[in-house]
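If your schedule permits, I should be very grateful for your opinion on a structural question. I would ask you to consider whether the tokens describe a fold that such a sequence might reasonably adopt. Thank you for your consideration; the sequence and its tokens are set out here.
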Amino acid sequence: MSHAPETIGHALDGPEVAAFTVELKREFDTEAHRHPRGQMIGCSRGVVTVLTDQGAWLVPAGYGIWLPPWQLHGGRSFGPGAGWTAYIRPDRCTELPSTPRTVRVPALLREAILRAASWEDERTDAARARITGLILDEIRGLPAEDFGLPMPAEPRLQRIAQAILEDPADGRSLDGWAAWAGITPRTLSRRFPRETGLSFTDWRHRARMMRALEMLAEGASVTAIAFDLGYASVSGFIARFRQSFGVTPAAHPIVPGLQSPVRPDR
């Protein structure tokens, strides 16, 4: 495309879909920002974590994240990586998902977006219109995957969640976290699933698993990850990882050197 991605992201006119490829030789951080176009971000190598005001979303290789127009978001990559992004004009987002979601990217959608990324200008013709329509149809029907970590809205619960994200290895009990935040254990155990859809224990486990994937992408050993995340044994960590993703850490496609993402059996 003839414009920079950040310019296209703020464009209310122009092409319905503007796509770009990205090659990352090192990790990056982006500050929280928003733009009027919807955005689909896909990861073909490495891992990206996208932070929104609604939660944290992990995007490993073979997956993508949909962000609706004006969604506040920032991001960070882990290890060298590659991927693509597609900006959708706001008037074409009305039938697309209204909340962020992590999705498995079908080969058809990936190839259509890569084709759009190869266009060197913004002209429109029948062939491009068909590809644009295909991209929108594919995004519209994608089911959400379990790589999101919803954030609670209640300030005390949010404080607990943020502390766990900053230090997933913190092994405090539910009672300990409740006392730290000035909330009763009963309120914590009842409100956490009401606001996030996950029990407090399951939320903390998912936070640890998301961090485990980030560390795997950075090349950390399974032993180091297990103890850095507060597990009492490597075998206990591997069992939890297999329960979450259907494969052991060493067999996960996110591990450097494994090129083809494999959908784990669930």
Remarks:
- The chain has a mean pLDDT of 86.
- The first helix runs from residue 5 to 9.
